[in-house]
Amino acid sequence: MNKVLLGNFFKDKKSIILMYLINAAILIIFFNMIHPGNLEILYPISISLFLLAILIVMEWSKYYKFNHHLHQTNHDRLDLQPVTNEQAEVSKLVHTLNKKYVREINELKSTHEENVQFLYQWMHNLKTPISVIELIIQKYSAQQTFPVEVLKNIKAENDSMFASIEQVLNMIRFENIAMDFEPRAVPLVASVKTVINEKKSQFIYNHVYPLVNAGQEYSIITDKKWNQFLLDQLISNAIKYTGKEASNKKLVMTIFQEKEYTCLSIKDEGVGIPAYDLPRVFDPFFTGENGRKFRNSTGIGLYICKKIADRLGHRLEITSEVGKGTEVTIKYLAKL
């Protein structure tokens, strides 16, 4: 940094140095014309060069001090320590602009936090009618006075609405994941089976059969709650895009060891993703070709999964073939 600063200093002072050298050259030429061969002119020139060197050192000291603090400063503490009037004016302007931008940033943060809090509360309130609908479904299911197929359809839509609300709430919570992150050893097979049990009705409704391949229990390093949400999202996606048109489709979850990673492969037998859409599946709100076929596609499921996996230190990979299905692989660091 000092080399760059020194270079900038001489660029700023080159006109003064150049004018001095031109002036010295003119004096030498003029003196030599009057007194040819007389070297006495070198003495005042030497003194003048010495004084120029002192001036440059003094200017460099002021220049370095101000610019060094300018490069080292941050938004919390602006201490430029100006020496010249010009530097004082620059320092004053920087302080004024800094106060203005800090105020604007704080106002934006405050507005954003208020909006997020409002959205969070609103989403929580939406859970109440969903819970009421669930109770009504249970009531009519017990009485057997309502067509079973209709109740199944209502429950499926109600569960989908609940899942969407949970997705939004987790997006909001994700902003503070660092405060809510507790890495520990977590049993992966048990976590997968927990999600499968929670989604039993969704599997049945969509005619998808879950299959877990694991020779043993595997311990991984992760945050239990956020990893559970990650699995929930990926398995829900796999069920949704496997579809209910063809029965007896399988969703195969395979757990295996690969070098320092414990891997979970979630492979469906769904519609698959076109090759030209694959590079963008983790982009926010990207639905691609399948988004035109499935009305519930939002384009945020895989985006959230990728963000969570990155934050947890896991690798997320996806391969797919149209008409054959999609395979998503999570690579966890094995327990140390």
How would you summarize the topology of this molecule?
Elements: H1 2-34, H2 42-72, H3 85-143, H4 148-174, E1 183-187, H5 188-198, H6 200-205, E2 208-213, E3 219-223, H7 224-242, E4 249-258, E5 261-267, H8 301-312, E6 315-321, E7 325-333
Structure description:
Its EC number is 2.7.13.3. It is found in: Cell membrane. It is a multi-pass membrane protein. Residues 121-336 form the Histidine kinase domain. The radius of gyration is 35 Å and the shape is elongated. The chain starts with a helix and ends with a strand. The chain is built from 8 helices and 7 strands, in the order ααααβααββαββαββ. The chain has 336 residues and is α+β, with helices and mostly antiparallel strands. Strands 2-4-5-7-6 form a 5-stranded mixed beta sheet. The chain has 3 domains: 2-72, no CATH class; 125-174; 181-333, Heat Shock Protein 90, CATH 3.30.565. Helix content is 59%, strand content 15%.
How many individual domains? 3
Top-tier CATH class of the largest domain: Alpha Beta
Beta-strand share of residues: 5-15%
Oligomer: single chain
Q: Tell me, what's the shape?
A: elongated
Strand order within the widest beta sheet: 2-4-5-7-6
- The helix-strand sequence is HHHHEHHEEHEEHEE
Please estimate the helix content: 55-70%
* Assigned CATH architecture of the largest domain: 2-Layer Sandwich
Can you count the helices? 8
As for the CATH topology of the largest domain, it is Heat Shock Protein 90
Instruction: Kindly report how far apart the N and C termini lie.
Output: 41 Å
The CATH homologous superfamily of the largest domain corresponds to: Histidine kinase-like ATPase, C-terminal domain
